[in-house]
């Protein structure tokens, strides 16, 4: 940034002051951004940024516009770093992440530079300086693809957009309408950045598929639906520049015009400065983020206003408890003593009774004139009882009062305890009548004074006894009381520590607030133009900036540094299925026989064998089985499922296989239905179709599933228009389906749930027009051609990125049940995220199938400019497939366009053959038909051959037994009976161990399911929670944005978990098939050891009833995750602080618990579901095996009784079977 004469501009002083502030505070990202802005404006540079998806053609376009082949171009992702182009002495600088700078002078080693441009791991930026056809003070930037998930790439693209004065957004012909394009364009429009759109690779356009006018209309319609307003839209082709539809010259003219009119700005937009300051403030706050979070956590549910006044209260309580622990016994005794002392045991009536009692016990007491000893004793007893009764009433009251006082005093100290209640209930004093008599003073004369003395003596005696009883109880409860007091004291001391901790946390927060307020005052002074630097200081900063051009790693913002990936971020295909190795079986070889026989020949062989065996007793099972195989060879159909992302060319490839354009083809998403192309029959004529429409209930459920994300629902479909008027999120991809349903339901409502019989031409609207296709369950097209005459049914599915739940279920059905899977990807854009998700699912289940039934096709291979380029693309695809767990894929480069031209165009036979060869279809078709004939049909033939060989063994056994002498027959009969009993016993062996292995396998599968889903969350976290996403909505609250991100994350993880469940179903069923095969093989081995020629007839593999997902991650209320939101403060914090890590770990912990819960529920259901089927299958298999052995037992015995005529018959049949099988 060296200038001999400095250029000044408005706000320069402010920006220099901010640069110094950011640098000194350690805000590396804002320092770098401010530096780049200063450089841009001091150099008076007008910056144009080129953005777009990987492989959209940005680099090719820039090479063309510069008229220099500098940037690497390829159909696969190449530019892995930021490329900036400016005017100057020709030079290319390579800036590494570690701060190194390497310069290349002309003549350039172009290939070396291109390789460096692909090296995003080491190279951060490539700077190209040129003086050819490039105006001074212009800067062009080529960014990494916007779909890159690398945070450094994202940050580089965001910074380039921030610096740009004008943006050219580049999208390729087939992916112009991708949602990612619209999201990105929406974000740059929100920044008030003017932008143009360039649609590249227009050489892919074919007027026969869609007119140019219609294509442009759909592009404009898509942009309008998102509220996007580009300045212009250019449609260009680099490789076919002579095409009449190519607007490359107009684009060049636009750029030339910009050179003449576009001028660098003389002032920095205040909004940019405000944005920098706002972001810096958030960054500065994030420095104390962990401390603030820690302190806030310490202050949760704490009223800080009363916090300081609470401590004295607890200190007082602590002192009281310490006092109580030392003097509790004395305090309680004194309290009980007061209760006892204040009690009145001798009120007036009781004293009078005491007086009468004392009077009767006077020595001279007489009863009347005729007093007798008996009369005196009787009166004395009566008066004693009366006194005792009255006194006892008051004693009982005192006892209760004392017990209550004692209980309350203890409870006041340590709270209620059952032990206290039981102990205080034992407080007692037994008032015996003899005590009252014993306290009389002998010889005392009855007087008022003596009565008072006596009653006082009685009262004190009773009270003394109660005090003693209290002491006994306290001694008994002493351990409990002292333990309770100690625990309470410890609790209060802990609370005091917490309070002191809370006060400290509160003081910390106040200190942080004050420090931030003081710092922000300095920032605001700079913002107001009151520079915080002197003139000399400003000059020093400016000179320092002039000398700086390359940033060292320490100077780089954290977001721009290359960090190690989270463990597991790259899929380890070797360890992916650790613990599931029992689930992997080698594919069956396709070449089953050395001799080559046609299908018709095998049909004849099987028919002949069945006919030969039909008269023989005991061979009926073989006859039925061979007849069934013959029939299947004649009439069997094979389902071929086509998969791939939208616009990958599935429909055009299907047309190439069929040999005619019978499915609609468009560069925009079309296939919204499941289309099947079937052979004709008596009831279905050539070029007719059946359109199965959804019923109203299913359609309503589907609509409500989508409306749920908008917090809406309907009861009737006619409410949809009204509900959609309330939905403001026009950007949501799901709106396409809802708008289509709203537009078309009235015209088709009368036909819901029915099948429409239409012509092929009429079927096109139901296949491609979303306003009709959204109501279609399935479209069956009947077409007579070479493909369908071989019994092949071709299923063209919706794109792998279809959001439709029914499409996901249908995809699983075809993955599991289709006889072959063809996955089509497009040459220029190998895999989107939707592709990746689908391919991961294929990788999960690939090895669970008996045959490798997957074929992968790179369509539009004709776009390759050389054999090396096409090989490079295929190698790239192969490597990517391996990363998804798909090893040794059958991979083909094809061109459906050339294949269709070879069929339809008016060409010579030689020209057609040449086009057909270039299309690559023949190579694929040859392998594919070999798979059909030797793989699918070959399996059936191999089973039939094995059955004939088993029959030959049984016939030989029969003939051997029939040739024995009479004496040997008798001995053999006994041996056969013994062997038969042993054979029957061996059938039920090891039943329990197999079921245990099944359950162990299911346990292990789900253990790894949980691990993989949690790892996917870690791998994909930044896809859902990143600054770009969280800054989409400027008006939405933080909670709303986080909720939106969380919803998308949960939907993704729920989908991934559901896919894992579906893959597990396939694994379990495959495992059960192998268990049965192993069981039968072991049984056959056991039978061989028992005796000669005991055979089990091969049983046809029966399909299992697949389990269902019973619990989904979306079943859990998402509010359970909201406490995690507190760890998010602002978007900048995610890249520059520890907020992202803290947030991710907290969310992971909650998710792990929920995933555990969901997987456990599904695991239990799967175990129950498949255990029931296993038990039934074992019963059926046992019965069939027993039947096999019984039949053979009867055959062996029959052979011992056979006659010459039977022997001759068996010999002839054996010879015929051998001759036909070998011939």
TrEMBL record:
Keywords: Coiled coil, GTP-binding, Hydrolase, Membrane, Nucleotide-binding. Gene3D superfamilies: P-loop containing nucleotide triphosphate hydrolases. One of its GO terms (cellular component) is membrane. Residues 48-201, 640-854 form the Dynamin N-terminal domain. Residues 559-587 are annotated as: Disordered. Residues 482-509 form a coiled coil. It is found in: Membrane. One of its GO terms (molecular function) is GTPase activity. Its main location: membrane. InterPro entries: Dynamin_N, Mitofusin_fam, P-loop_NTPase. PANTHER family: SARCALUMENIN, TRANSMEMBRANE GTPASE FZO1. This is GTPase.
